[in-house]
Amino acid sequence: MSQSHIHSAPGIGEPHRAPRTADAYTEVMVPVYSPLDLLAVRAQGATVWDAAGKEYIDLSGGIAVNALGHCNPALIEALTAQAHRLWHISNTYKSDSTLRLAGALIRLTFAERVFFANSGAEANEAAFKLARRYGLQQSPRKYEIVSAQNSFHGRSLFTVSVGGQPKYSNGFGPAIEGIRHVPFNDLGALEHAVSENTCAVVLEPVQGESGVLPATREYLACARALCDRHNALLILDEVQTGVGRLGTLFAYEHFGVVPDVMTIAKAIGCGIPLSAMLTMARFAEHLGQGTHGTTFGGNSLACAVGEAALHAISQPELLYGVLERHDYLVSRLRQIGERYGVFDEVRGIGLLIGCVLAEPWHGKARDVAKGALTHGVMVLQAGQDVMRLAPSLNISYSEIDEGLARLEALAQELNHETVNC
């Protein structure tokens, strides 16, 4: 490249060169995503504005990430204060904010040890590697991991292999061996699959990506008993359900089943890349020095925000508010579903809610999400037949009402289209 060409290149962030349209997204991004037609530029609470100034009510919560809403003042304060002190020093040294967050997580959970990473996939990768190390130190055959069909645990090669959705693992060569998948909530299948060769059972307390399907208490209790019987680790993937989403600080508290390993992400950073694997000291020792690691995981900036988020979300009044908002939202959504015939079922726990689309809209969850966007409300899909809501845990009732009004307008439109087909 010539020197003159280098000098003529536009500067980063020059206004006349910065992409400002939704169409420009496809010109610069690797096409692994298919985002809806919204170019967000500003947000506050549960309200988002696009580049044209249109307002949207956000009932998606950044896929359960923005647990305290957009631009939360307490998080901004924590982020700004830490930014003026220390951003990153690496895990070669010790950081005070990292130690504070680890200590807070240990005080608030069953755990005695914490490993920080940047994403849910990384937290799960650490958990699965721990399980393999734990099992193989008992027997060379004890490396099998039992997981649920239609589960989702991340996008790394290990986590897509453990996840029970072949569409995410196909096309990347041979899957990692030793993974067994069983139907979710099927006690008999789980009992048949777990053996002396099992090093871990991995479950989501609520299958989020596959339709917002809660586990039964009996199923998780059975998993706990089987792991105890066969000396395997019970790993609960709380990437989506943890940190207040279900109205308890962690989902295992709601179900009354304590795991050996728990993974969290999403809400712990409220949008800052942060995740964690939590476990007991006797299991943590199997990941000794040099067996695993991360450059950015647990950096000072992320942990300072995580500490502020955890403090806010762990307050009893906020957790109780999640339960109150659940009742309010589910009641209103069921009324909309019955009035316009668009939902067969509204299910979920806390503020992880799935609206199962009625037969005329089976397989059209993405189309419904697109339609919601045209009405100024942001929702998610969970599989092909379920509209998913995962709003901020402190979303205001005025924002809920406005979002529901817009969803009702969408339901009325869908019903009208069906009647006139």
UniProtKB/TrEMBL annotation:
Q: How is the cofactor bound?
A: Binds 1 pyridoxal phosphate per subunit.
List required co-factors: pyridoxal 5'-phosphate
Looking at the UniProt record for this protein, which Gene Ontology cellular component terms does it annotate, in alphabetical order? cytoplasm
Set out the biological process GO terms recorded for this chain's protein: L-arginine biosynthetic process
In terms of SUPFAM superfamilies, this protein maps to:
PLP-dependent transferases
Binding residues annotated for N(2)-acetyl-L-ornithine, in chain numbering: R155, T294
Query: Which pathway does this chain act in?
Result: Amino-acid biosynthesis; L-arginine biosynthesis; N(2)-acetyl-L-ornithine from L-glutamate: step 4/4; Amine and polyamine biosynthesis; ectoine biosynthesis; L-ectoine from L-aspartate 4-semialdehyde: step 1/3
Q: Which reaction does it catalyse?
A: N(2)-acetyl-L-ornithine + 2-oxoglutarate = N-acetyl-L-glutamate 5-semialdehyde + L-glutamate
A UniProt-annotated Pfam family = Aminotran_3
Q: Which GO terms describe its molecular function?
A: diaminobutyrate-2-oxoglutarate transaminase activity; identical protein binding; N2-acetyl-L-ornithine:2-oxoglutarate 5-aminotransferase activity; pyridoxal phosphate binding
Give compartment(s): Cytoplasm
- Class of this enzyme: transferase
Q: Which UniProt keywords apply?
A: Amino-acid biosynthesis, Aminotransferase, Arginine biosynthesis, Cytoplasm, Pyridoxal phosphate, Transferase
Q: Where is it mostly found?
A: cytoplasm
Q: Modified residue N6-(pyridoxal phosphate)lysine is at which positions?
A: K266
Positions binding pyridoxal 5'-phosphate in this chain are G120, A121, F152, D237, E238, V239, Q240, T295
- Could you say which EC number(s) this protein's record lists? 2.6.1.11
InterPro entries linked to this entry = AcOrn/SuccOrn_fam, Aminotrans_3, Aminotrans_3_PPA_site, Class-III_PLP-dep_AT, PyrdxlP-dep_Trfase, PyrdxlP-dep_Trfase_major, PyrdxlP-dep_Trfase_small
The family assignment reads: Belongs to the class-III pyridoxal-phosphate-dependent aminotransferase family. ArgD subfamily.
Q: What else is known?
A: May also have succinyldiaminopimelate aminotransferase activity, thus carrying out the corresponding step in lysine biosynthesis.
**Family annotation (NCBIfam families):** argD, PRK01278.1, PRK05093.1
Q: How is the subunit organization of this protein annotated in UniProt?
A: Homodimer.
Return the protein name: Acetylornithine aminotransferase
Name of the gene this protein is made from? argD
